[in-house]
Task: inverse folding
């Protein structure tokens, strides 16, 4: 009797655990991302940094696929990666570098929080069309992503605040007080403070040992949000978007939650 009941009980337990895991984690790949994009519309150049956090109920069969010019640095806790350029522990990674980078093996495991630091620098035609008129600032969104909030200082030192500007749409924005911009930006940053992963060492960094909190991206974001900064300069804007405009997450059907995307633009 024991020879029959023990395997049956083990099988039932395995099925229950698998079912619970699928119900709690699902089958989708979820991502929480934090990006900063510096966009020079005058020169048509862009550079963008992103911290990408993934969680896959079931890892995609083909892994991730990102553009060939997008760097992807693994982010690991200190106990998982040596501090100064040594070999990191963990599964080996496989990449096929063709038209795109096919990150096919070891880059995204099932039910395992995984983080990367992404960087791109390239020419870009993405932009906001901005034109000052007597009635206000005419804005047309050509960034390829919906803008949730937009702060603009025109070339004459006038300030504008805009919300909910869909991709491809235009809006006439009236002049406002500078305090409206600073208040709105402070609130957005306060609601999107970076956090360390639950249960992890707060000293996360890349395999090369750099602390991300001391990197260029966070330093620039801190400068944008600094109470000491009263103006970003004539012909500048700060845009907050629903998704990244340059960083590619590597999957078409990814579910993005609680992300924070900032663009500092020059026009």
Result:
């Amino acid at each position: 009797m024991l020879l029959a009941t023990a395997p049956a009980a083990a099988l039932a337990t395995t099925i229950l655990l698998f079912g619970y895991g699928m119900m709690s984690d699902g089958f989708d790949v979820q991502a929480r991302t934090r990006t900063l994009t510096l966009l020079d519309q005058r020169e048509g150049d862009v550079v963008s940094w992103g911290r990408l956090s993934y969680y896959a109920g079931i890892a995609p069969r083909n892994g991730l696929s990102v553009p060939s010019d997008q760097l992807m640095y693994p982010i690991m806790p200190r106990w998982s990666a040596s501090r100064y350029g040594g070999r990191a522990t963990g599964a080996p990674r496989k990449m096929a570098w063709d038209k795109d980078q096919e990150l096919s093996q070891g880059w995204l495991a099932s039910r395992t929080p995984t983080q990367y630091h992404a960087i791109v620098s390239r020419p870009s035609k993405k932009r906001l069309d901005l034109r000052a008129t007597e009635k206000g600032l005419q804005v047309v969104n050509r960034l390829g992503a919906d803008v949730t909030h937009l702060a603009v200082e025109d070339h004459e030192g006038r300030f504008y605040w805009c919300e909910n500007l869909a991709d491809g749409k235009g809006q006439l924005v009236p002049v406002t007080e500078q305090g409206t911009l600073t208040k709105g930006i402070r609130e957005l940053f306060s609601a999107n403070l970076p956090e360390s992963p639950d249960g992890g060492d707060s000293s996360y960094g890349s395999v090369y040992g750099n602390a991300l909190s001391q990197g260029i991206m966070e330093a620039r974001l801190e400068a944008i949000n600094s109470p000491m900064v009263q103006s970003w300069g004539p012909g500048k804007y700060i845009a907050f978007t629903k998704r990244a405009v340059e960083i590619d997450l590597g999957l078409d059907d990814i579910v993005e939650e609680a992300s924070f995307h900032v663009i500092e633009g020059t026009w």
